[in-house]
Amino acid sequence: MADADVDSLKSRLADISGSFIDEWLRIHADYPGTLWHYTNAQGLLGILQNNELWFSDASFLNDASEMSYAVELTEKLVAERLKVESVTPLEKEYLESFLKSIISHRDNIKDYAFVNPSFVCCFCEEADSLHLWRAYSDHGRGYSIGLYLDHIIRKLAPIRLAERAVHNDRLVETWHYFRPFLCKVIYQEEEQQRIINRLLDMLVQAIKDAPAEFPSGDVNNIHKMIVTSRLFRLFYLCLVCFKHPTFKDEREWRLIYAPDFFREDKDPGSASIAELHYRPSGSYFVPYLKVDVSREIEVEHEGSKVKMKKLVFETIFSGPGLDERLARASFNAYALRNGYLGFNVGMRPSKVPLRSL
């Protein structure tokens, strides 16, 4: 097999990737100026004390089908295509190979949750939602924080994590790279199907245009490995941004650190080293990343320059289960004593007519 054949295939797949990603980015480009993060008092205090947001492993999020829903949808769509009389044996072979790769990924996650993990920080478009108060803020006894999203996005940068394992009594360290991006969670099944079908259409069309670049044969040949790995990189975007339609009322957006599958080199470049932390949640140890989102400004104080912290959010709603005045007073007291500029934030009470949750 000539290197030129492989290079030609990679070039064709690069065109598919570029087209798909351009369309994907347009879906997620128009994000609101403010997005809301529901949390309890401990979560709010953690943001204030450490100037950090936590990105949790997506395998441990509230949706039991997280990281598998898109696989099951794709299984269904590929099965439908394979029944169509016009599908050629070559198209069938590559569609089945792609499907096999994503099913294998899903099964690996079930056995070991950290295969190609993504780390997620969740937001929503609704500032004052009964459903979200109940689900994410200690049954309404918490806070909904309106964050300066543009500032946070500017603070995010590529990272690398070390994976450590013991082989032959030796500690082996492998680096994995992650890149941040913002996505709008897609709940509508018609839209989900359109996106997956678009990816499958691109593969089928590429085979029709240049069948010689997609040789038939052993599923382990280099061409199939290249095709399935490149398609999986694109499919992964759907994997972390599709949710079951029953969650549609959350109107969620996500900041995600996803595996940087497109990184061809091993030079760390601008990717800083990050540490993986663990927190207890129920009966599990949840892996998460800490990401610095601090803001500082210098102000004049008695003839000297003094650094003060600025809040990373513009306003807060106190939950319907809280006493509004006590919530505002306790927050302002903490902020004033801990060096925050403009500490008297516009905290507003929830308008949800439910005071005992």
Please describe what this structure looks like.
The chain is of the alpha+beta class. It has one domain (3-349). It has nine helices and 15 strands. The strands form three sheets. Strands 8-5-6-7-3-2-10-9 form an eight-stranded mixed β-sheet. A four-stranded mixed β-sheet has the order 1-4-13-15. Strands 11-12-14 form a three-stranded mixed β-sheet. The longest helix has 26 residues, at 3-28. The radius of gyration is 24 Å and the shape is elongated. The mean pLDDT is 85.
Topology:
Blueprint: H1 3-28, E1 34-39, H2 41-50, E2 52-57, H3 69-82, H4 89-111, E3 119-124, H5 130-136, E4 143-148, H6 149-155, E5 159-167, E6 170-184, H7 189-209, H8 222-239, E7 252-259, E8 272-273, E9 277-281, E10 284-292, E11 296-301, E12 304-310, E13 313-318, H9 324-337, E14 340-341, E15 346-349
Parallel strand pairs: 5-8, 12-14, 13-15
Antiparallel strand pairs: 1-4, 2-3, 2-10, 3-7, 4-13, 5-6, 6-7, 9-10, 11-12
Percent of sequence in beta strands:
25-35%
Overall tally of domains: 1
How are the strands of the largest sheet arranged? 8-5-6-7-3-2-10-9
Report on the biggest sheet: 8 strands, mixed
Q: Give the tally of β-strands.
A: 15
Number of helices: 9
Mean pLDDT across all amino acids: 85
From the helix content, strand content and strand pairing, which structural class follows?
A: alpha+beta
What ranges have pLDDT less than 50 throughout 5 or more consecutive residues?
Answer: none
SSE string, helix = H, strand = E?
Answer: HEHEHHEHEHEEHHEEEEEEEHEE
